[in-house]
Amino acid sequence: MSAPPVARPVPLPRTRFAVVGNPGNRRVALFAEAVRAAGLPGPRVVPWTDVLRERGADFAADEIVRVDSPGEDAEVDRVLRGVADPTRVEGSARWYAAFTAALRSLRGGIRLDGPDDLAVLFDKRRCHAVLDEAGIPVPASPTSGPGGAPVRGWDDLRALMREHRMPRVFVKPAHGSSASGVLAVETGGGRVRATTSVELTADGRLHNSLKVRRYEREQDLAVIVDALAPDGLHVERWVPKASQQGRACDLRVVVVAGRATHAVVRTSRRPLTNLHLGGARGDLDAARRAVEAAGVRWSDVLGVCERAAACFPRTLCVGVDLLPAVGWRKVFVGEVNAFGDLLPGLTGLPSSGAEGLDTYGAQVAAALRARARPGPLSAQAPRPGLPAAHPPRPGTLAADAPRPGPLTPHAPQPGALPADAPRPGPLHPHRTGTPHV
Q1: 49 or 12, greater pLDDT
Q2: Which of 109, 371, 388, 403 sits between 20 and 30 A of 5, alpha carbons compared?
C-alpha cells in the first residue's frame, strides 16, 4: 500500500506594499517604518507630483496600495487648488475635483481605500447624510445630503440659523480639513461672533493661521463667509461638549479593519480642539471613567465609531471625531476623516488587538491578515445590523469579522509628535498652508 500523500503548505502570495504620497513626508515615513517592522521591504513610494503630472499610476496586481494625504507639499497643493500661496483658504472645491479625479487615475493593485468612499469622506455634506441614514448620531444639519439647503453667503447662513433655530453653529468648508476655514458662530442678544483660525487680511483675502482669533463685527463675518461660500459650505448645530478640567474636549478614534484601535482626547479652552491650533491631549482613562459614571458602556462609545467606519466598507482605516455631549451620556460623530491616523507614538487600546502597535503598524498587520486569508477581499466588514454604504468590490482588502487576536507588536515610533501637529516650514509664523490631512 502506498503512503498517503504529504500535505504541503500553501505558499502565501507575495506581499509588497506601495504608497501614493509625498516623499519625505512624515506620514509616508511612518508607514514605511511600519512595513519594514513587519519584516517586509519598504513600500514603493509613488509621488503625488508624478500622479498629477502623468495623469495616473499603475500598480502590479499583487501590490497592496495605500493612498496617503497629498497635503504638506506646496507644489502638490498648487496643482490641486490652483492657488499659489499655500496659506490661502480658498480653492477647496477645485482641490476636491482634482483629488477625486486623481484617485480614479490609479490603476491596478489591491487598494486599502475605496475611491468612492474617499469622495464621500471629503464632502462633509455627503458624509453627514450617509452617517445620518445609517443611524449614526450626528449633529443636526440643514445642509446635509442632496436635499440640503445651499449656503451662497452670509445672508443664507443667517436665514438658516433663524429657520432651524440654531443660534450656535459650526460652519465648515464642505471639502476642507484640519479646521481650515471652520468658524464656530454664535448669535444672541442682537450680537454675533465667531471663533476661527481664519486670518482676514486688509485686502479681503483669507489665510490659514495657527492663531485662533475671534471676530465680533458682522461685516467681517460676512466677508469671510461670502468668500468661502463658492467652494461649498456645511452647517451643523453646535453640540455643547463635555469637559475635562474646565476645557472642552472631544476624541479622535482610529478604526482599523472595523475595530477601534487607537484613541486620543483633545481638549481646548476654545471651540476648536485641533492640537495644531493650541489644543492639548487630555486623559483618556478619565474620559472612560466619566462615560461609565454616566451609566454608558465604554465599548458602546467605541462601537459608535466602528459603526461610522462601517459606512465606508472599502476603506481599511478612518479617524472618527467623536463629540461627547455635556454629561457624557450622549456622543455624536462630528466627522470621519480619511487621513485621520496621524497619531505618532500612540499605541493601541487595551483588548483592541493592536496593543504595542501604532496606527500604521495596526494597518499593516490588518492588511497582512486579510492577505493571508483565502477568498474575496474587501476593505471593511460592517458590524451586524448595519448595512454597508456600498457593496464590497474585488481588489480591496477585507476587515476581520471576528474580533482579532493580539498582533505582532513593534516599538512605538521615537520622537513622537502630537496629533495633527503642523509640519515645520518657511510659512508665516502665524499661518500654515492648507494641509488637507
Answers
A1: 49
A2: 371
Closest CA to 427 of 199, 214, 264: 199
Distance CA 339, CA 44 (A): 19
Residues 6+ apart with CB under 8 A from 138: 128, 131, 132, 236, 332, 333, 334
DSSP 351: T
Q: Are 136 and 336 in contact (CB under 8 A)?
A: no
Q: List all residues 6 or more positions away from 159 whose beta carbon is below 8 Å from its beta carbon.
A: none
- The region of weakest confidence among 104-108, 177-181, 333-337, 388-392 is 388-392
Our measurement of the distance from residue 112's CA atom to the centroid of its chain's CA atoms, rounded to an integer in Å, reads 15
3-state secondary structure of 177: coil
Q: What is the mean pLDDT of residues 389-402?
A: 37
**Cell numbers at 377, concatenated:** 477581499
What are the residues facing 108 on neighbouring strands? 59
pLDDT digits (tens, 9 = 90+) for 99-150: 999 999 999 999 999 999 999 999 999 999 999 999 999 999 999 988 999 9
Q: Which amino acid is at 41?
A: P
Q: Which of 96, 48, 106, 46 is nearest to 72 (CA)?
A: 48
At 14 the three-state DSSP class reads: coil
For residues 418 and 378, the model is more confident at: 378
Tell me how far CA of residue 12 lies from CA of 9, 36, 62, 269, 369, in angstroms: 9, 18, 11, 52, 11
Identify whether the C-beta of residue 143 lies closer than 8 Å to the C-beta of residue 232: no
| Contact partners, residue 113, CB within 8 Å, separation at least 6 | 66, 67, 314, 315, 316, 338, 379, 396
57: which strand partners?
Answer: 106
Q: What is the pLDDT of residues 156-200, one digit of tens each?
A: 999 999 999 999 999 999 998 888 899 999 998 889 999 999 999
DSSP state of 352: S
Counts of helices then strands in the chain (DSSP H, E): 11, 15
Residue-wise pLDDT for 229-279, tens only, equals 999 999 999 999 999 999 999 999 999 999 999 999 999 888 887 767 667
**Residue 364 near residue 35 (C-beta atoms within 8 A):** yes
Q: What is the pTM of this model?
A: 0.84
Kind of pairing between the strands at 247-256 and 243-244: antiparallel
Return d(Cα 10, Cα 24) in angstroms, integer. Answer: 37
Cβ neighbours, 10 Å, residue 199: 19
* Share of residues in the chain with pLDDT > 90 (%): 72
How many whole angstroms separate alpha carbon 307 and alpha carbon 195? 31
